[in-house]
Design goal:
The chain is an all-alpha fold and 235 residues long. The chain is built from 7 helices and 2 strands; from the N terminus they run ββααααααα. The chain has one domain (3-234). Strands 1-2 form a two-stranded antiparallel ribbon.
Length: 235
């Protein structure tokens, strides 16, 4: 039996996933993550590894959603696969640029204060800088596949469950923290938390994952494209 949110999404009562969906999806995500952690380092080429890593990031979320959706609800609408308005998508895109600026600034401040200047996204950058074809593959993987998969699980399942049971403030912060930790204990976690907060806010506002997918995609595309454009201009 599905539950209804006490605090409605987009002004209406909707079926929401619960703890069984969350735990099943999390178990599937963790199992996929462990498998990828073992196999991905076997790829020697950084550019290929970066593209593959982005693709599997999205696939892990899709697999987790598929498992969660088979528990009780069996319908993707309950997980935020609903039509979003043009206005909501535009707001998502604008917040994607804002997330990039805020996240980049936060990472710089963190690096200056901590002295931690490690770059954990070298393989992704190698994919973006490996020529036109490699850049196209990176953009498709990182700005489309990854956002859809991660939003499907982290907003459609995780944020959805926590929002329904603990309200907006706790739901947004906790789900964003889980999303951040899933990216590892490194500077990227700061950016992931910011993206997680904004996409959770969009999810609660719209009742759809698509504005968050738009935000996530624009943020990622900007991360990949800006260094390439900068190198082209300065070169």
């Amino acid at each position: 039996m599905t539950t209804l949110t006490n605090d409605t999404l987009a002004g209406r009562k909707i079926a929401a996933p619960g703890w069984p969906e969350l735990f099943a999806g999390a178990a599937a995500y963790a199992a996929s993550f462990a498998l990828v952690a073992v196999l991905l380092p076997l790829i020697a080429d950084d550019a290929i590894s970066g593209v593959v890593g982005l693709v599997v990031s999205g696939l892990m979320g899709m697999i987790a959603l598929a498992v969660a959706a088979r528990i009780r609800i069996r319908g993707l609408s309950a997980f935020g696969f609903r039509r979003a308005s043009s206005r909501q998508l535009i707001v998502g895109a604008a917040l994607g640029l804002a997330a990039f600026v805020i996240g980049s600034t936060a990472v710089v401040v963190y690096a200056l204060m901590s002295g931690d200047v490690q770059n954990v996204q070298t393989t992704y950058q190698a994919g973006a800088e490996g020529g036109l074809m490699s850049l196209m593959f990176t953009l498709v993987a990182g700005a489309i596949i990854t956002p859809i998969g991660e939003e499907a699980f982290f907003r459609g399942v995780v944020a959805n469950t926590v929002l329904a049971r603990f309200g907006p403030l706790v739901g947004i912060i906790v789900s964003a923290a889980i999303f951040a930790v899933a990216h590892g204990i490194n500077p990227v976690m700061i950016v992931a938390f910011i993206v997680g907060v904004l996409t959770a806010v969009l999810f609660r506002w719209s009742g759809s994952i698509w504005p968050g997918v738009m935000l996530h995609g624009v943020n990622n595309a900007t991360v990949f494209l800006l260094p390439v454009v900068s190198a082209t201009v300065t070169g």
